[in-house]
Amino acid sequence: MPAKTSVVIIIAAVSAVGIAAIATYVRAEPRAVIPAPVIQHSYPVVNPPVQPAQTPKNPYVLVFQPHMGMDGISFTNLPESPPDGTDPKMFAVNEFLKVSKVPPVDAKVIGIDLQNKVAILGFNKAFKHTYGTFDEKTLLDGLAITLGQFKDIDKYTIEVDGQPLDTLGSVSLSDPIPVIRPNLSDNKPSWGTDADPNSASEVPPAGSNSASSAGDTQGP
After folding, report:
1. Are the beta carbons of 65 and 74 closer than 8 angstroms?
2. Would 205 disulfide with which of 8, 12, 74, 123, CB 3.0-4.6 Å?
3. Is the CB of residue 190 less than 8 Å from the CB of residue 159?
4. Residue 25 pairs with which residues in a beta bridge?
């Protein structure tokens, strides 16, 4: 009996030592790093948005500025591009009114109706004013040469609130006024040309006859 007990004790001791050795090995051996599973996502292929074509720069109009000299009224002009959605004829007329500094600052053309090459200029009430002789001539000549750059206009009339305007001072406006074709140094059409926008051209001085002094006109 004592012998069997000793054997059992020895076996238990050996087992304990073996278990302890295994435990020590497991603690001493670094754990293997298990990589995280790779998850693949499937996304739809989206083409990049197509950029719209760039809108080309607007064709320019000539804005005429009056000057008083020894020989009378003369005009210089610089090309300006109307904003998008703006009528080029109205833009040219209203810019002339601004730079001329003749009518009230709130005077402007609010509509242009073209009938048989006659432009009917519709102004707001601020434009209706009695002007002196020099200012009247400046306005009439300036409007004539401003509209003269457009080949589809031969003459113009003036209305305020839909009613024809009889005069701006002393000149009768009962008949359409012939436009003045500006004399440009390169003899190119004024509207939408490729002239240098950084250079100003000068129109010959206007004499007493506004219909023939600043350029070729369209007769009645």
Report:
1. no
2. 74
3. no
4. none
